[in-house]
Fold each of these.
Amino acid sequence: VSPAADPAVISPQDPTLLIGSSLVATCTVSPDFPLKAEDLYWTLNGRRLPAASYATLGPSTLSVALARLNGSRQQSGDNLVCHSRDGGILAGSCLYVGLPPEKPVNITCWSKNMKDLTCKWAPGTEGETFLHTNYTLKYKRRWYGQDNTCQEYHTAGTYSCHIPKDLALFTPYEIWVEASNRLGVAVSDVVMLDILDVVTTDPPSDVHVSRVGDLEDQLSVRWSSPPALKDFLFQAKYQIQYRVEDSSEWKVVDDVGNQTSCRLAGLRPGTVYFVQVRCNPFSIYGSKKAGIWSDWSNPTAASTPRSERAAGGCDPKGGEQNTTLRRELKQFFGWVKKHAYGCSNLGIKLYDQWRVWLQKSHKTRNQV
Amino acid sequence: STGDSWGIFTFLCAALCNLPALPALNCSEELGAGQSIQQTYDLTRYLEHQLRTLAGTYLNYLGPPFNEPDFNPPRLARAERVPSATVDLDLWRGLTDNARLAANYRAYSRLLCYLRVLDGQVGTAELRHRLAHFCASLQGLVLSIGGVMSSLGYPLPAGPAGPPAPPGAPAAPNDFLKKMDDFWLLKELQTWLWRSAKDFNRLKKKVPPAVVTLRLEARGF
């Protein structure tokens, strides 16, 4: 027969406490039950508490003293249980022992194609409060507008939130994160930004890497500007990175500028290369500020041709070719400084012209 | 009313086969009642397996003594809301097919409701994710049982909400009692899945696959 009333009552029921505090809890058996204080004992998280910490406060009331409590073992609360002599559970209380939250820090945000805003942050210090902590990202337009609350959490990791729409451009936003748990609230510093300053885009599409005729040390990379930004006034900056198939070291080409093609030079003949491109929507609406780099495009592979006359080639020769090439490049750059006007765009074309000139001059030299 | 059960069965079959329910069902497999029973049996075993991981994670979240193997708290009055799987052996043997299936259908519909309430509350992101996944699978089981009932011509029991316990009703009055409720919910779920395997095994023997065969063709819905 299950009794209508609970067998016993614990006080306090489900308290919240600061780490290091002490607590005296009491267990009072219901009058319907034939149990006395001496028939009771306590456990905390399954471990029996020493009888020395008990005190009898009445015929059917037993108390226990807990000193200098540690942070809760689980976020659902420590289980303090009052038992009858045979081990049966009479009542329980969940103890929430922890610390108030720290100010969230390092708020960074980015907007994908100016349509939305995603922000992420870090909990203050080491973040272990032992209590479940709720984070709320809030934002408002500076000078007017009410506070808005972000709804879509965990889109870019645990501490992140996504604002999908209704964002205005050309106006500064104030963004902050509130952390709260049973012991208190902490508010991060306010971050101020304009959506246009944190724009990122999709990676460039249609990345093609191809050989340049028979040239063994070059590959030509071509791509398309990310389509989402085609209606917006901006200049794209691109970066290329490439690596040899069996290496994990990427080489970065930084000064690609605004074009959608580039030639990689100084490569190893007969080698497979992986190439990736990324885009930075620079100077959106004339803002003169750089945006945020997109993700790298999926790697595209291509191989440099291997010349037939290197059939008997082995390493020493390769090394020789490299140092010869480097010497030539050094000479070339010297030549460029004198004859070109520092337009990196024209660099490669000039380089080819120079190579042709070099080969012509080599021919004449060898003929002599 | 045969049309109705056709419609229901078609929908349930589509749900099982993960096909759109309209327009034409290219469900070319012949789902005899026998095969549906086998599928339902398989589903209960799969859920049993899934529950082991879910329960482990959840009980660890509740903390000791809930996650101790020999933990056996009293089943308090409020825990009676959750339908119990344990039943007298002779009673169980004597159940008609309809009663047997209906008991399973009702139980899992109720259990699904309670599990969904659990999902809405605090817990780690990992737990919520596992719970959501389990609820989806459990929903599949309810549909599967409904499918078997329809294929055998039995009416589905009245709505899962049935008697008391809409989410608003007596929730546990304190956090510790709520932990006990959660414990018993998982326990009953375990017991039911264990019992269902036996229920469906028994049904398998009584309904040979060849006898009741329903062919589904494009019915131009």
Amino acid sequence: MTSELDIFVGNTTLIDEDVYRLWLDGYSVGDAVALRVRSGILEQTGATAAVLQSDTMDHYRTFHMLERLLHAPPKLLHQLIYQIPPSRQALLIERYYAFDEAFVREVLGKKLSKGTKKDLDDISTKTGITLKSCRRQFDNFKRVFKVVEEMRGSLVDNIQQHFLLSDRLARDYAAIVFFANNRFETGKKKLQYLSFGDFAFCAELMIQNWTLGAVDSQVDDMDMDLDKEFLQDLKELKVLVADKDLLDLHKSLVCTALRGKLGVFSEMEANFKNLSRGLVNVATKLTHNKDVRDLFVDLVEKFVEPCRSDHWPLSDVRLFLNQYSASVHSLDGFR
Amino acid sequence: MPGKLKVKIVAGRHLPVMDRASDLTDAFVEVKFGNTTFKTDVYPKSLNPQWNSEWFKFEVDDEDLQDEPLQITVLDHDTYSANDAIGKVYIDIDPLLYSEAATVISGWFPIYDTIHGIRGEINVVVKVDLFNDLNRFRQSSCGVKFFCTTSIPKCYRAVIIHGFVEELVVNEDPEYQWIDRIRTPRASNEARQRLISLMSGELQRKIGLKVLEMRGNAVVGYLQCFDLEGESGLVVRAIGTACTLDKLSSPAAFLPACNSPSKEMKEIPFNEDPNPNTHSSGPSTPLKNQTYSFSPSKSYSRQSSSSDTDLSLTPKTGMGSGSAGKEGGPFKALLRQQTQSALEQREFPFFTLTAFPPGFLVHVGGVVSARSVKLLDRIHNPDEPETRDAWWAEIRQEIKSHAKALGCHAVVGYSESTSICEEVCILSASGTAAVLNPRFLQDGTVEGCLEQRLEENLPAGCGFCHIPYDELNMPFPAHLTYCYNCRKQKVPDVLFTTIDLPTDATVIGKGCLIQARLCRLKKKAQAEANATAISNLLPFMEYEVHTQLMNKLKLKGMNALFGLRIQITVGENMLMGLASATGVYLAALPTPGGIQIAGKTPNDGSYEQHISHMQKKINDTIAKNKELYEINPPEISEEIIGSPIPEPRQRSRLLRSQSESSDEVTELDLSHGKKDAFVLEIDDTDAMEDVHSLLTDVPPPSGFYSCNTEIMPGINNWTSEIQMFTSVRVIRLSSLNLTNQALNKNFNDLCENLLKSLYFKLRSMIPCCLCHVNFTVSLPEDELIQVTVTAVAITFDKNQALQTTKAHVEKSLQRASTDNEELLQFPLELCSDSLPSHPFPPAKEHLESASSNSGIPAAQRATSVDYSSFADRCSSWIELIKLKAQTIRRGSIKTTVTVEKTSPMGEGNFRNRSAAPCANSTVGVVKMTPLSFIPGAKITKYLGIINMFFIRETTSLREEGGVSGFLHAFIAEVFAMVRAHVAALGGNAVVSYIMKQCVFMENPNKNQAQCLINVSGDAVVFARESELEVVSTQQPAANCQPACTGGEVTT
């Protein structure tokens, strides 16, 4: 006796959260059943393994059919085929677009192309996330990227509108899209200590301050591309390190303001020129795409590492940078 | 030209990409009704076209309006080649034809293609302007309301229940016509869909005409079925109960002109006096059985004498041809009739209802059923008389005579079904023989009715259990006792019925789903030999199914079955029997005795031990079940009950001598009603198997209950969460040389596992009850068994005190209000009492019975089964008369057809179209349930019947996820299309939903599969009770809003 066909269709589509998670995590039906058995569900419910198998298959089939709709979440809301309560729809979407930290760190800033997709095998091995799940996450990134790529308006809003994600998740996707678009290098060993959250924080600030959208809210691609003019203008900062007098003045302004406030004051004072040179060099090179990509590598090399070797506490770094940029305004030519 | 149909095509969305190059579609729409077609402009390069067309106007006859569906085809314009069809929408405009109903259908409809499934949606607005010319000779029956619900619909009151209406229409199946060889599968499927909806439109119109002739205005319990007879054609048949309904909110509504007959009726008292005192008692049987005729013409010879006379009175001609209505047969007959004879002389005093107004049902005799095996003729012979009609006429006569033998003049809970395999067809009909109350209608005054009812019903909740037949002239041997409730009347020891549990019945504990499952191998054979073989097997199956039911009932410690449905399915090499029913413990009936096992070889020590071990297990199970279902009847001493009624055997002989044609019915002792203990004799492995299978049935996990009736006896505190579902399983039997035992085990496991899966899947709803569990078995191929289950899970509140009375009060309220002067056509008129609450709230009854009831010490009673002698009896019992079935006459084929049939009803113009206009809202929730009500809500309006037929075919089965993926998607699509139609009508729920057919065929080697599904139900508007209290004035509007505007998903 073999089961040829075995289905269950509810007027309201049944969604089992646990099975959904297993499905999203890319487990095969067999593995999912094994995992569910291990969770002790059989003892709780008195069900048999066969029942569990059939149930899991059924849910997997449902999810498989829903996946097409999840690719365009507004469709899930308007479709008539599956009657799903709004709260469940939200859950389906949110979970589907959720991603693993380990995975996103691997692909952050990479071109979302076929080439990268081929590397998913390695990523899967490295991170222990199933290949299937990697593919889903990668495809999600790519899909969101494609949809919002050439849209005007706020990146986060666009993502939220077209994918119905929560604010939090939409911001994360904005960061991913922004990084992918500008191809920032994040995979170097030096950068490994940085979390996705760190990059997302940077991305948000850069979107706010460095993109076209920061000046004009009615341009295509406004939150995706860095403002070329702005980058060009950054070249002018060169004077801060090229002009000896200006450099000294800047240093003295900063030192005066921070004296007694920094635990690492002497190190700062000794290193000021190096640090300033490092920062300004990073900024002035940003007109070249290659250097844009290396932004984070350069920042770490030129600024973060020197600070770290001198054991700067975070609060001191913050104070220093604030003062560093504030003092510039009182210099000639920057007023 | 009495109608103008106006259609506007507004927009489309989510269309499929038809042009690969641009990834877009140039869509336009063809709107067709009858032979007229309109087209919209092409809306270029869009997947969400906005046509905003003008109003397309069709001027049509109302006959066409009833028969034809509106056909909307969405196409992709192609400059160089033929335009590609994207898909179609069929809209049944029937709901617009009824004056009280909505004036507009408007909403998003899924665009359906038989090969690709749903491909986007289209927004359509449909209106009808009807002109008044009602008095001419009519072929149309606009305005007759149709309900699938098998009780009086909730917001109506029954003024008169006229009785049985039936009709059938036949045609050739397009799938089997020569042209099918040259046309595409799509064209063929669409031809079939069109034809079937056209036929069902025609059928409905014809039934409507009969109803109008009977002076009714509605059909309740409308059941329409398709018989796919393959090469011999396609039959669409329907049965229902004609009624005159009155909308409750408008009590002073019209009175149909039915006064004259009722006068006569008044004068003649009903013969079968329902008065308790005049009743004599006699033995009872649960199942009044069955004749197996493999002979359309001669089966009458087996009728008992009593039913023969009966037959002669009945004009047989009327019903057969389906033209009875036109000839005015039933109606004229009615005019002549007087009370009881009125009922009896009516062709078929049948009622498809399963629940009744209080007081309507007086006594229940037991289940009556009849089956007949027919051969479908391959060759069309249109000149032959309508054999299908004759076949059904014959079966109905049989049912009628069975009922008569049970001392009953009517059959309630009546239904008909077929099972077809190749050219063999089993026709089945079953119902519950009953005595209906004619009395309280005679005076026509409420007071009279009430008094009488009170007097009559004093032994509350047990009246219907009292035997209707003469104790001295029992049709079969049975064991009678005095009613445990009133102790005045005789009751049988067990009671089997096909109806729902009457609302006033006193039940102890909870009920449960009881199933008997059975397979029998048969040799493959051709034509007559095959039919003969099947006819031979049937009685054995019937007997065994019955035995199983009885055993399981006893094992559960219960004494009555409701909603009994026995399905016999025929396959190439086997027969399957599946009986489902809901077991309950009726307080009025005696406590069931236990089951005793007796071995045949008493000398073997280990065997003895084994037997006693089994016995212990059985006793344990019974005890456990009693606890599980909370069956603790009060103990009473033997004296109070009175001594058991003496041996009935002699008397049954009496009957036999009277009817010398030897009524098999009486001879088949299905009740086992002779001895005092229910003994199972284990004399061979078969019996052993039986006992084992008894014990393998696992009770549902705690927190779960299941039943196949409308509601679960013993649970009344429903909460509002419902989940309707369909589950389908197909298993392939592994070996070719199967034995009956292995087969039985496979089948049993299949059903049990299916139930277990359901319990597991719905575990989040605990505590909940699976209601209206409906199993359907089919045998699509040699080694395949397909089981389809549709049911609804309803949550209930465990903690809340049982509000037993609530449902009753509500019910009686709805039925309340009566027109005193109303003259009744005949006894079936429903007296609606105007009591605001039920005179006997069940809770009270419960107490009452608890205090006064008697309980027999689980003593020895009932019956034994003698397996060996049974076979002999069977053989004498069946006549095998071969008869070739005739082919059906060809019907006329029209070109267009409806997918969905609805008939309009309800008042007001309220429409809920939230899904359509508000672009940003989510889709409105449409509930679906096989029940006639929605827990926690009130149905405020019936919008019409939904009757839809779909075909889906694929040539890329693997790509669509195999058979499971294919069928899963299709069923989901069917649900979606039903919901969309309901929403467009302005409704928010489907009640009495039923999937009548799910025919699945696969050919994995060719990567193909095909499936046909037929569903029906009543579209309604409901309002939550809580909301009703708040905003009682703007009923439906309030309740839909929250669901529809349900909000964005963003969190």
